[in-house]
């Protein structure tokens, strides 16, 4: 049941790991169950992102309780459950310890619209700074969801990233783009800082071009094909 959704979850995990966001068995992805919006499929704990299979995907409710599956759930399940609870427009959530994003978040600086990736977040990137600890309680999950607001991504300070979107394709696109944006800014800052970001209207136009459903689907399809080639 829901084989297409689960297959995308499998592919998303492999993509994240190949793009350097694996961090061993840490990090997780979820997707809302299509005909049961108060529950979601999720990567199980103690396995790598690239190890997700139909057999080890678990089902969780919006209280963060596992309701189906043979494997245990992640302690940070509340990132997913609380975002999905308050955002009916969101169907997929990603949390990873993307290394460049972690490093950048520890600087306490705003993300600049450097290149295509940075422009995607030019409408603002929230930073959750209440704690750098794990999000292991419902209360902390609620705080993360409040900080995210209506945005599609945020930085967990000195911890990692969260993306939330209507589809797995978009959530993965945002996760990879945010990591690239943080990487670019770290490099630019090491060279003395950005001096030529472009006019605001140019940045806005670039964001509009980069932030399209067609772009999300095409990028995910390409990354899936690339997995098969490798």
Description:
The structure is a single chain. With 230 residues, this protein is an alpha+beta fold. The chain has a single domain, classed as Class II aldolase/adducin N-terminal domain (L-fuculose-1-phosphate Aldolase, 3-Layer(aba) Sandwich). It has eight helices and eight strands. The protein has helices spanning 3-18, 77-86, 99-107, 115-120, 138-148, 168-190, 200-210, 213-229, and strands at residues 28-33, 36-42, 58-61, 66-68, 92-96, 127-128, 153-156, 160-165. The chain has an eight-stranded mixed β-sheet with strand order 4-3-2-1-5-8-7-6, with helices on both faces. A hairpin with a 4-residue loop joins strand 3 and strand 4. The longest helix has 23 residues, at 168-190.
What does the oligomeric state look like here?
A: single chain
State Rg.
Answer: 17 Å
How many domains make up the 3D coordinates? 1
Provide the CATH architecture. Answer: 3-Layer(aba) Sandwich
SSE pattern: HEEEEHEHHEHEEHHH
What's the level 1 CATH class? Alpha Beta
Residue stretches low in confidence (pLDDT < 50, at least 5 long) are none
Secondary structural class: alpha+beta
State the helical fraction. 40-55%
Biggest sheet features: 8 strands, mixed
DSSP helical segment count: 8
Gross morphology: globular
Number of strands: 8
Helices, strands, pairings?
Blueprint lengths: L2 H16 L9 E6 L2 E7 L15 E4 L4 E3 L8 H10 L5 E5 L2 H9 L7 H6 L6 E2 L9 H11 L4 E4 L3 E6 L2 H23 L9 H11 L2 H17 L1
Parallel strand pairs: 6-7
Antiparallel strand pairs: 1-2, 1-5, 2-3, 3-4, 5-8, 7-8
Helix pairs in contact: 1-6, 1-8, 2-5, 3-6, 6-8
